[in-house]
Amino acid sequence: MSDPHATSPEDVDLSRFDAIVDVRPQAQTRPHLPESTFTPLERLLEDPAASLPSTSARVLVVCDIGMRSAIAARELAELGYQSVTSLDGGIDAWRRHGLPLAGTDSLTPNELERFDRQIKIPDIGSTGQSKLRSASVTVIGAGGLGSPVISYLAGAGIGTLRIVDPDVVELSNLQRQPIYALSDLGRPKVAAAADSVAATTTQTATEIVQGSFDSSSAADLIEGSTVVVDATDSFQARYDLSDATRKAEVPLVTGAVYRWEGQITTLVPNGACYRCIFPSPPESAARLDCALVGAVGPVVGTIGTLQATEVIRISAGLAPAYAGRLLMYDGAVGTFSSVSVQARPDCVCQRP
Ligand SMILES: [Zn+2]
Question: Using CA atoms in the order 147, 150, 152, 158, what is the torsion angle rounded to 10 degrees?
Answer without folding.
Answer: 180
